[in-house]
Amino acid sequence: MARVIVKFRDVVRKSIPLQKETTTIGRTPTNDIAIENLAVSRHHAEIIQQGKGFFLRDLTSSNGTFVNGVRVVEQPLRDGDTILIGKHILTFVENDELAAAIAAAPRNSQDPDTFLRSTMEWEIPAEEVDAETTLQIPLPRQVDTPAALVVRAGTLAQERYLLRGEATIIGAAPYADIRLVAPNAPAVAAVIRYLGNHYEISPSETGLLLNKRKLIQQQPLENGHLITIQGVVFEFLAAEVD
Known about the structure:
Layout: E1 3-8, E2 11-17, E3 22-26, E4 33-35, E5 45-50, E6 53-58, E7 65-67, E8 70-72, E9 74-76, E10 82-85, E11 88-93, H1 96-100, E12 116-118, H2 126-133, E13 147-153, E14 160-163, E15 167-171, E16 178-179, E17 190-194, E18 199-203, E19 209-210, E20 213-214, E21 219-220, E22 226-229, E23 232-237
Parallel strand pairs: 3-4, 15-16
Antiparallel strand pairs: 1-2, 1-11, 3-5, 4-12, 5-6, 6-9, 7-8, 7-10, 10-11, 13-14, 13-23, 15-17, 17-18, 18-21, 19-20, 19-22, 22-23
């Protein structure tokens, strides 16, 4: 059965089967996947089953919905696609072997600025939800020696940012990993994703430059690449260096 695996700050929170024709995602508890976080709109997105396939639809959310780092309005989903909503990563999976890995496990501690539940948790005991929906598998794509962005021009809170997570958000939004301070900076300007053996950057707004050329689609990052966003120039370093 198709399902989404929900992660926040690289911690697996839930694995939720897609049992309905339309699965809603948003901040209010009436959603099938409710994420109580201000980065998430009340009615943010929905996953719709159409025949044997699924597609994702953004519901004109304030901060956008991203599939594999690219902002989308509607997008067919493929096995393994990653959906970014706020700072939550939802991985769409259809592989039955993953379902076999689901087992009873202690609930992960909740971060103070987020709370996630499926609507079925309002109807059945919490211990039953844990047994059915908490993953007992290791997190993929963790990096021991992360790449880094070093600020070469412009002023930000830090001079160096380590890219430790599976997704790094650059923008003016309060939940961004790298906060832009320009008055006209977009909430999400770009997303950098770690894909196991390399990083990719995806623009969500126009005006992003990679090596002084306009970036219009996702692009692998190489050591020494220069990224210009809202007057700030970052250098991408494939590994942290002094």
